Description:
290 residues; seven-stranded antiparallel sheet; 11% helix; globular; mainly beta; Jelly Rolls; disordered N terminus
Amino acid sequence: MANVSDLLEADNPVVRPASPPRAIVARTQGRRHGPVTRIVSPAELGELIKPFVFLDYFDFTPSSDALFPMHPHSGIATITVLLSGNLSYEDTTGASGVLSAGSVEWMNAGNGIWHDASPADLERFHGYQMWVALRREVENGEPQTQYLPAQAIPRVGPARVILGSYRGTHSPVLSPDGINYLHVRLRAGEQWRYVPPAGHTVAWTHVHRGALCVAGERLRSELAVFTESEDALDFIADTDSEFILASAVKHPHELVLGYYSVHTSEAALQAGEAQIARIGEQLRFRGRIR
Length: 290
């Protein structure tokens, strides 16, 4: 026989308040420098949304060859998403070629790599470059690059899965676990819900076309960082809209910054910068850089 307290609990179930919806804790339009808008830097918002430590948005009609001349990285992976135009690329693993609109460049710099990227023609050239801080166990590993055409990037509904997994669909990019990066297009009035994987408490979005409502606010040509939580995010397009969305497990390490590098310790940074210097000497000997 049930006791009295069991009967009372059955008749009067405990009602727990729903968790509040995720809020926006930071917004920015970034700082424009010529054709490039710097949206996230490692020493600023990168600390808030790590492992995502850097984000540039570029949008221009080319008039010269160089966009990102030959330069080094270590301790990070860079991901370039080309939304329009054609991109010539080269890196010191020996890879080179041309990517077209919709393509993705993934470069795990590891202990050190040099690369460059430039418009291949005079078409409108726009897209994103992002840096992802690597964990301690891989930050000084061997470099690895992938150059993927648009048709290699899977789609789930309105979202292209650039990094990670979404609703059972996996990106072919060999990125670390615990990171999602989506490119999303919505028509005016369309609604879309993103449910982060377990452990993904970091999340942000950047709108580059149209106007988007999320977390009770309206975004247009800006980045928004959300409260750290595993709760879903609901998006409503005010107009035809296009944006990127990223979520991740929080990067557990401090950020130790070099000029082109991000590491987890001074020793790891020194190892990466020493390798960068060695590769740089080889490039100078070949006349590739001054």
